[in-house]
Amino acid sequence: MSEGEFFSHITAAVILGIPLPYRLVARSLLHVSVFHPRRLPRSTGVRGHEAKPSLVAMMRDERTGLRVATPAATWAGLGASLAHPYYLVAAGDAIVRTWRVGSPLATLADLRSAVFSGRRVGVIALREALPRVRVDSASRTETWLRLVLVDHGLPEPERNYKVHVEGIYLGSVDLAYPALKVAIEYEGEHHLLDPEQWARDIDRYDALRAAGWIVLQVTKTDLFVEPGRTAQRVRAAIRRRS
């Protein structure tokens, strides 16, 4: 790379640890940007972009030492690349996350500034996604589950809710309706592959149910193949408590 070139779009997202669909990453070229009047990079496996200083800012990634678009500019550059709007929200959630991290990659204000800095491809998708971005979402699947519930007409649940009963901490649940004592837990594959984690989860669910909570466990199939059925299970639990 020449001095004026930097990674952007999908490639910058991968470098920065922003979650993207695997299939999109697997078939992607390396995205490299330059500011005018530098010439676009042209080589095998590389897609060059001309970046406008008013729309894109560059930085050096502390972990890798690579020159990349800033997290906010990277998110804004994904507006035209992510086919499903949930992926764009999940990427935004990862960037602004304050839950269990030292500091977020960027703030909501940074994302807002990037979106409204000028005309760009994908700006409509960005403007629709921005109000749905949250700072306390723990994972892409948790974001997806939250959006599925809301888009099926359910109230937005609280995220990573800490349950205390008579001063005793029982654990944190992915999504919750605390007033109704309804918890929704996404069971990723890592839960099944780690016996100790699975045992801790079972103990936590037993404690929650003993304290009067309804605990609904959601699998990959439930979320991505049968989202409507998943929303109906949550709706039925809410009705029982309402």
Question: What does this protein structure show overall?
Answer:
The chain is α/β, with parallel strands linked by helices. It has 2 domains: 6-136, no CATH class; 141-241, 3-Layer(aba) Sandwich (Endonuclease, Chain A), CATH 3.40.960.10. It has 11 helices and 9 strands. It has helices spanning 9-16, 22-26, 71-77, 85-96, 108-115, 123-129, 140-151, 189-193, 195-210, 220-224, 227-241, and strands at 6-7, 30-35, 46-51, 58-60, 67-69, 158-165, 168-177, 182-186, 214-218. The protein has a 4-stranded mixed β-sheet. It has a 3-stranded mixed β-sheet with strand order 1-2-3. Strand 7 and strand 8 form a beta hairpin. Helix 1 (9-16) crosses helix 3 and helix 4 crosses helix 7. The mean pLDDT is 93.
